[in-house]
Every structure is written in C-alpha cells, then in structure tokens.
Design goal:
3 helices, two-stranded antiparallel sheet, mainly alpha, binds FE2/S2 (inorganic) cluster, Arc Repressor Mutant, subunit A
Amino acid sequence: MYVCLCKGITDSQLRDAIANGGNEFKQLKQQLAVGSQCGKCVPVAMAILAEENAKACLYYEVA
Ligand code: FES
C-alpha cells in the first residue's frame, strides 16, 4: 500500500527501512524522504513506525 503519494513510498519500503535501523522518524525522512513534501503521510508513517517498534519490543527478554 502506498503511504506517501508524493514520493511513491509504500508501507513495505517503510517496514524494510525500519528493520534496517531506521527506528526514528527523522531517519526515515532522511533515508526515504517520507513526509518531505505535503506531509499528509506523516501520521500513517508514524503509526507504522510505532507498530514496528512495538513488535521489536516483544522480542526483548524479561529479566
Ligand atoms: S504524501 Fe508524503 S509528503 Fe505528501
């Protein structure tokens, strides 16, 4: 699904970038230019980022 129509960025591209260390929005913006034009995609991109970061937290061991 397209998240950013201005830059043609899909949710898969975002998830791949997050998996490769882009766990902050500013990194995704630098890497993919998401949200760099009209900015309407920012809430959806932030939601995907939060979802992926939450998934990553599920794998931490509880001491
Ligand atoms: S839709 Fe992403 S900057 Fe416009």
